[in-house]
Design brief:
Elements: E1 2-5, H1 7-18, H2 22-39, E2 52-54, E3 63-66, E4 77-81, E5 89-96, H3 99-102, H4 105-108, H5 110-127
């Protein structure tokens, strides 16, 4: 799969990459692991798996959450979307850098926030064509 992401995620990625603390390095390595798992997919998921699950709070766009193997005190989540018009692509729409500290608050607004990011990503792609 081809990976693409929002400007907001790009900025978060850069901040995580720059964090050289032990926890920062572990978080960044988990993030890279999650992105690699997305990239290694041959197609959009049809059903939930251990790592990728459909987000039930989705509104306008069907979105999926990507998690990582359990680590004490760390709970990163990627929220991604698979554009129907580009079946070889996955778009990272949102990122929770520390869901462990946020709990379910993250999921309370994830559908609305993902819709906004996806709509912005679509508009940016259309404007660049």
């Amino acid at each position: 799969m081809l990976l693409d992401w929002s400007r907001e995620f790009d900025a978060q990625f850069d901040r995580m990459e720059a964090d050289e603390s032990a926890l920062g390095v572990e978080r960044f390595n988990l993030l890279v692991f999650m992105l690699k798992r997305l990239q290694d997919q041959s197609a959009a998921p049809a059903d939930d798996t251990a790592m990728i699950k459909r987000v039930r709070q989705a509104r306008k766009h069907q979105i999926w959450r990507v998690s990582h193997p359990y680590r004490v005190g760390i709970a990163l989540r990627l929220i991604c979307w698979y554009p129907k018009e580009a079946p070889e692509m996955v778009v990272v729409a949102l990122f929770a850098g520390d869901k462990a500290g946020m709990g379910d608050v993250f999921y309370d607004s994830v559908g609305t926030r993902a819709d906004q990011m996806i709509d912005r990503w679509i508009a940016e792609k259309e404007a660049s064509q």
